[in-house]
Amino acid sequence: MSILNADLHCHSIVSDGTLTPEELASRAAANGVELWALTDHDEIGGQHRAAAAAHANGMQYLTGTEISVTFASETVHIVGLGFDPDDAAMLQGLDDTRGGRGARAREMAEQLAKVGIKDAYEGALKFVGNPKLISRTHFARFLVEAGHCKDTSEVFRRYLTEGKPGYVEHRWASLKDAVQWITRAGGVAVIAHPGRYKFSANEEFALFSEFKAHGGRGVEVVTGSHTAAEYVRYAETAKEFGLAASRGSDFHSPGESHTDLGRLPYLPGGLTPVWDLLADRIL
Ligand code: AMP
Ligand code: MN
Ligand code: MN
Ligand code: MN
After folding, report:
1. 137 in contact with ligand 1, CB cutoff 6 A
2. Does the domain formed by 101-158 have CATH 3.20.20.70?
3. CA distances for 15 relative to 57, 66, 130, 164, 253, angstroms
4. DSSP-based three-state secondary structure for 173
5. Residue 164 exposure: Cα atoms within 13 Å on the Cβ side
6. Which fold has domain 6-97+171-281?
7. Ligand 2 centroid, distance to 137 Cα (angstroms)
8. Which of 5, 91, 141, 153 has the greatest number of C-beta atoms within 10 Å?
9. What is the reported pTM?
10. How remote is the CA of residue 55 from the centroid of ligand 3, in Å?
11. Residues 231-278: tens digit of each pLDDT
12. What residue's CA is closest to ligand 1, atom 8?
């Protein structure tokens, strides 16, 4: 079942995407997606809408989210798939994870004001679809609109990444909690875009080992964040750790994302697709 146009990673206005779950569903279907998951950051408020929209567009659906985790002082993202979207412990855990975002955003705005960028908090808020989820992406869109940078990648490079004036250190969920919320709600936990983390070989080994020990079962191999060389590299890592492989564009917005929904190479052969572990969770 490797040859399936599954797109199991993207974002709507419920987190930091610019399209509604319904708009994403019709775009995914138009691009040939057969199995879809909406994976908003730290938030599952769009899941019932997304499942209904998937069915209205003739696609199968897996529930999804992307949880922010702090591991070895870095931010790591853990995708959850196929969980019960009404699970109380998961809802509470995600609510706690989102909790610090408001204060963090105000601090980011204070720091940006010191380098001459005024009213960034109010500016970012204009781009926020869900008041509980203000993210760096919303600040990036405001800085582009206000003419400070030409696109959001430039904003991240100049202002919003470690060591830059608008970057605020933040503590997210623990790896163990994130994996357990997902698995106890009946889902499968997946390490998102491992090629993006700035880990040493030892730290990366620790991430995969601890993730497995906590019950994690999958890794993204084909994602919009990976190069072709990273598809090969993480296919090997998946085999080495006995993890299933996932595939997802990480689409956020037509103007910003270079990989569109469903427009990715298929999973390489010789891997267990993560959807094979979730056959009874597909809606
Ligand atoms: P946050 O969860 O508020 O820290 O925001 C993280 C989000 O910022 C990610 O999910 C991406 O959507 C976006 N992001 C992070 N780094 C970059 C980058 N270099 N260029 C564009 N977007 C980025
Ligand atoms: Mn994002
Ligand atoms: Mn991510
Ligand atoms: Mn993402």
Report:
1. yes
2. no
3. 22, 10, 7, 23, 12
4. strand
5. 15
6. TIM Barrel (3.20.20)
7. 7
8. 141
9. 0.98
10. 26
11. 999 999 999 999 999 999 999 999 899 999 999 999 999 999 999 999
12. 137
Domain boundaries along the sequence of the chain: 6-97+171-281, 101-158
Q: Which amino acid is at 186?
A: G
pLDDT in tens, 15-73: 999 999 999 999 999 999 999 999 999 999 999 999 999 999 999 999 999 999 999 99
pLDDT (0 to 100) of residue 3: 87
CA–CA distance, 195 with 199 (Å, rounded to integer) = 9
DSSP 119-172: THHHHHHTT-SSTT---HHHHHHHHHHTTS-SSHHHHIIIIISTTSTT------
Cα separations in angstroms, 249 against 83, 94, 116, 206, 259: 20, 23, 35, 26, 6
